[in-house]
Design goal:
The protein is of the alpha+beta class. The protein contains 21 helices and 22 strands.
């Protein structure tokens, strides 16, 4: 418990003890009033201070103002009718502070859950300098430096493994407990914990640009993007609070004036008491506190599952998704291509692969990587010159003095080269040498094991349309679409074509696009909500997407929707519950049925129940 919370708890305990004691000791008159005022100041001085500051800053109508007016008014009524009963005023403030303490503890619990999730920031980096290791602040490590990560340590900065093999715990990033095996040449992502072997890593980014820093920044900024529900509550409170203050004033004055005009006793004390009760009941704390807390807890719960949501507005949008559009490669399929066939004309298979791998040596596209793997060794880039990439088509490069073109049929058509059709299933890479067709290579992808399950779960959630976009040929696309039972498939698409198709689909309900984040940034930003899958370490995905799934498991998408819908159910439950109780108790207070004790329940009780309901959004396991 924090120091501030401890102080509030001590004040609550002191106030409760003194209140019991004063009701047991027979004290009357001015001394009784002075003692009760002292107890009131112990429990309520900070509320009075905030109310006064709000009046000075012209921000009068908030919960502090309502509490101050209602409790001071209750004291004034007790003095006016000489009852000596000051218990109600202190009890209202006491229970209000108990509610505030409870709300503070709930927020702390929610923040602690997120802090545990995002306890990624490393304290140091083992920087290798002249053969020795020096513990250094990660922010001071330059790009290209060599760091050493021992077993049990967290990788502080993104880089490439120079030496060593190990298993990495990625659970803080992906929510998955299964370790990831890494070895020399593989990427090492900051935030992961090294489990077994010693790793020597060459840093490729500054600490501020590393995955761990980007994620921490994303989580910290998520609270600044308010949902429509939160904006509604803020606007509602700005109108509601002045309205109830005017209503309370009217309740205090108008009935007595009407009675005087009618020749009846005014009963000022009765109606002022009802007005003060009306004020306490009207405090919108339950809504103002529980709604943002619900979203905060929902974002935290999702983050623990490796689902990073950039703001509550995106969490709300995710709950309304009716159409899901998938990129194929790397999203529904593994994106790990392998050469399955070679159809050539005049060159041996090995030489055709060699030329293709050399031409594609500068590309990180999955197709290019599969060609390099088939080649079996690192391409000698000194043999390659003048590489030109044609987006969505392929590359043209000079290899050993010969112009090599490697790409799809569109590239061949652009270059005016007659090519041979291929009836094999997969991605076809056509190859030409000095504008003469040399053959083609068939590269096949594999559907992810959980893709079919993800689509089935999406349908169970009421997603009425599932679409797949791909740059692959129609036969390959249709084969995957049939296997996964996708509603619509669009093939042979360039990046610009994908955006065009998205434009056509938008309007058929809230649309989400899920892509692997490598080359899908334009489509991610155009969708109602962009979801980057398998984005651990991908700057483009973290930057462009609204929701980031840190691993490449497509089942995380329906889980993200279920989490968002649970959060929204909690939000709507709190709104309806709080408003119904408020309206009922306000009516009862206006007719004199509800006294200050009803007011305490309507204000503090409803707030406590709403906060308890809100923190349920943290519990997302099993969704």
């Amino acid at each position: 418990m924090k120091k501030k919370q401890k102080i509030i708890l001590i004040r609550i305990l002191i106030t409760a003890a003194m209140l019991i004691l004063l009701n047991l000791i027979p004290v009357t008159g001015i001394l009784r009033l002075a003692l009760f005022l002292a107890v009131y100041l112990v429990i309520g001085y900070d509320i009075l201070k905030k109310a006064g500051r709000g009046i000075l800053n012209r921000k009068v109508f908030d919960e502090n103002f309502l509490m101050a007016v209602a409790t001071i008014g209750a004291f004034a009524l007790a003095i006016y009718d000489r009852s000596g009963d000051y218990n109600e005023a202190i009890a209202v403030m006491l229970f209000y502070q108990i509610g505030e303490l409870f709300q503070s503890l709930a927020v702390q619990k929610s923040r602690r859950n997120i802090s545990e999730l995002m306890d990624l920031r490393p304290d140091y980096a083992n920087l290798e300098t002249d053969g020795t290791l020096v513990k250094t602040d990660p922010e001071e490590v330059a790009v290209g430096s060599t760091i050493v990560v021992q077993p049990g340590e967290r990788i502080p900065i993104d880089g490439v493994i120079l030496e060593g093999t190990s298993a990495l715990n990625t659970s803080a990033l992906t929510g998955e407990s299964l370790p990831r095996d890494v070895h020399e040449g593989m990427e090492a992502v900051s935030g992961c914990i090294n489990l077994t072997g010693v790793l020597k890593i060459r840093t490729t980014k500054e600490f501020g640009e590393s995955t761990v820093s980007r994620i921490l920044e994303l989580v910290q900024d998520s609270g600044s993007r308010k949902s429509r529900s939160e904006q509604f509550i803020s606007r509602f409170a700005r109108v509601y609070t002045p309205a109830v203050c005017i209503g309370a004033l009217a309740l205090a004055v108008l009935p007595s004036l009407i009675r005087l005009i009618a020749g009846l006793p005014a009963q000022w004390d009765v109606w002022i008491y009802r007005a003060l009760t009306f004020l306490v009941i009207s405090c919108p704390c339950a809504l103002v506190i529980s709604i943002p807390l619900s979203f905060f807890a929902g974002i935290g719960g999702a983050g623990r599952e490796g689902i990073l949501v950039k703001g509550s507005n995106y969490l709300e949008m995710l709950s309304k998704v009716k159409t899901v559009v998938f990129d194929k490669t790397g999203t529904l399929t593994k994106g790990v291509f392998q050469v399955t066939n070679i159809h050539h004309g005049t060159l041996p298979d090995a030489q055709l692969i060699e030329y293709a791998a050399l031409a594609e040596c500068a590309s990180s596209h999955p197709v290019s990587l599969s060609l390099k793997r088939a080649y079996g060794k690192e391409p000698d880039r000194t043999r390659v010159d003048r590489i030109r990439e044609y987006s969505g088509k392929g590359v043209v490069a000079v290899v050993d003095g010969k112009e090599i073109a490697a790409g799809n049929f569109r590239l061949m058509e652009d270059l005016g080269i007659a090519y041979q059709e291929c009836h094999s299933q997969g991605t076809i890479v056509h190859l030409s040498i000095d504008r003469e067709y040399a053959g083609h290579i068939v590269i096949s992808d594999v559907v992810k094991p959980d893709s079919a399950k993800a689509i089935k779960e999406l349908r169970e959630l009421g997603i009425h349309k599932i679409v797949m976009l791909t740059g692959d040929n129609l036969k390959t696309a249709e084969q995957v679409a049939r296997e996964l039972r996708v509603d619509q498939v669009y093939s042979d698409l360039l990046p610009a074509d994908k955006v065009e198709k998205m434009e056509q689909l938008i309007g058929e309900g809230t649309l989400a696009f899920a892509g692997d984040g490598i080359n899908d940034a334009p489509v991610l930003t155009r969708a109602d909500i962009g979801i980057a899958m398998g984005a651990m370490g991908s700057d483009a995905a973290i930057e462009a997407a609204d929701v980031v799934l840190m691993d490449d498991d497509p089942v995380k998408l329906p889980r993200a929707i279920r989490i968002s819908r649970k959060c929204m159910r909690i939000v709507y439950q709190n709104i309806v519950f709080a408003l119904l109780i408020k309206v009922l108790c306000l009516a009862l207070s206006a007719f004199g049925v509800a006294d200050m004790w009803y007011a305490i329940f309507a204000d503090v009780g409803v707030m406590v129940l709403a906060v308890l309901n809100a923190i349920r959004a943290l519990r997302v396991r099993g969704l």
